[in-house]
Amino acid sequence: MKVLIIGGGASGLVAAISAACSGFDVTILEKNDKCGKKILLTGNGRCNYFNDDFRIDKFNSQNLEILKKIINAENKQKILTFFDELGIVPKKQNGYYYPFSNQAITIRESLVTEAKLKGVKIKTNITVDDITYQDKFHVKTKEEELVADIVVLATGSKACPKTGSDGLGYILATNFNHHIVNVLPALVQLKSNLPFMSKWDKIRSDVEVKLYEDNQLVKEEVGEIQFTNYGVSGICIFQLSSMAIKGLQNNKKEEIVINFMPWLKDSLITYLDNKIKKMHKRKISDLLDGMLNYKIVNLILQKNHINQDCLYNNLSFNQKQQLALDLQSFKVPITGFNGFDKAQVCSGGVCLSEINISTMESLKQKNLYIIGELLDVDGLCGGYNLSFAWLSALLAGEDIRRKNDKIKTN
Ligand SMILES: Cc1cc2nc3c(=O)[nH]c(=O)nc-3n(C[C@H](O)[C@H](O)[C@H](O)COP(=O)(O)OP(=O)(O)OC[C@H]3O[C@@H](n4cnc5c(N)ncnc54)[C@H](O)[C@@H]3O)c2cc1C
Hints:
With about 400 residues, the chain is α+β, with helices and mostly antiparallel strands. The protein has two domains: about 1-185 and about 345-410, FAD/NAD(P)-binding domain (3-Layer(bba) Sandwich); about 190-340, no CATH class. It has helices at about 10-20, 35-40, 65-70, 75-85, 105-115, 170-175, 195-200, 235-250, 270-280, 285-290, 295-305, 315-330, 385-410; strands spanning about 1-5, 25-30, 50, 60, 90-95, 95-100, 120-125, 130-135, 135-140, 145-150, 150-155, 180-185, 190, 205-215, 215-225, 230-235, 255-260, 330-335, 335, 345-350, 355, 360, 370, 380. The strands form seven sheets. The chain has a seven-stranded antiparallel sheet. Strands 7-2-1-11-23 form a five-stranded parallel sheet, sandwiched between helices. Helix 1 packs parallel to helix 13 and helix 4 crosses helix 13 (about 385-410). The longest helix is centred in the C-terminal third of the chain and has 26 residues, at about 385-410. The radius of gyration is 25 Å and the shape is elongated. Bound molecules: flavin-adenine dinucleotide. The site of flavin-adenine dinucleotide (FAD) has 40 residues, from helix 1, helix 2, helix 6 and helix 13.
């Protein structure tokens, strides 16, 4: 039996290792000159490859009920055992797993070495253009046509196409009548039309952000926000992005409300009134500078036409109220988002209802497996996307091994 794995990224490498244990003839076809180019970029070069909080609410899919069946303690252990047996010593930080080396290359090299040791053939600089089925799979590349009994589609999504995942996998899947849930960028920066965005460029602040959809609160996050000259970025924004983007696509009004003082539980006016009693005569800017980035202070004072030198005690109650509103509930209308080239992952993909979720085998075509980000599954930042890539690959590999056992017993 010949197994062809299309794509040598995170999921393709693991599927190859797992399937090769069967004794089948396994080959990876990878379009880049090396496998796992995207792995090197993950976790800012450190590869956040897993998260202890492996739970269904960390994932998005049109078919979460189906996905739920495999996000469980048994499969969590399966992933951890795989990496343990691969020799990866984890460095755990608040439940986030990185290789102890702090280098993503450790993960890439360990996977490639293990694949080679298991007898996997790796053919690089080969792009699969088309796949058809007639008795067997016919896999077409520019150079040749290969024939296989089992095909694993592991081509990734459209996110970060410079790493090789350019969306061709969706076309390959539709050849077998698979439906594709609308593919959109996710874990990506959001754009705003606020007039003074350019003045915020590169400012960072620890905040609490709330996402409102048609004026209803839908999600909230805490973390570092980064302002850009066109909008907002940072992990807390990435976590909200998938929802905001889907809302924009459905013509919903999306708005982010920022609390620059998440540590303050009281009203800001009461807090400042009490503070000023002990601090004597203070300018408003001096008072606020001790609490947050001075550039944010300057901008919010400018927005409210308050002179930086104005003494706090000379502010009117209305001015204080407006300041408090901007510092604790600053509204940023979301009008757009960055594209696939800037996105870490995509939402949408091959519809999960057309896959046997326990084995990742297509329900449309026997012996065709679809794994990784090509499927309609996206996770939050924190190691969840790689977790799904590994898990889907391990489940497919297991099923391929079962097929070999069946052949042997027959
Ligand atoms: C900057 C960045 C940082 C990230 N950080 C993290 C993180 O820290 N933790 C986390 O969990 N996730 C992270 N992710 C997401 C994670 O990398 C992906 O979800 C994961 O790599 C998906 O694995 P995959 O195997 O499905 O696809 P990929 O890893 O994209 O692999 C697909 C492979 O298929 C090849 N290919 C595509 N089409 C063809 C074809 N027609 N013929 C032959 N080969 C083909 C591609 O060249 C590529 O090598 C990050 C992503 C990015 C872009």
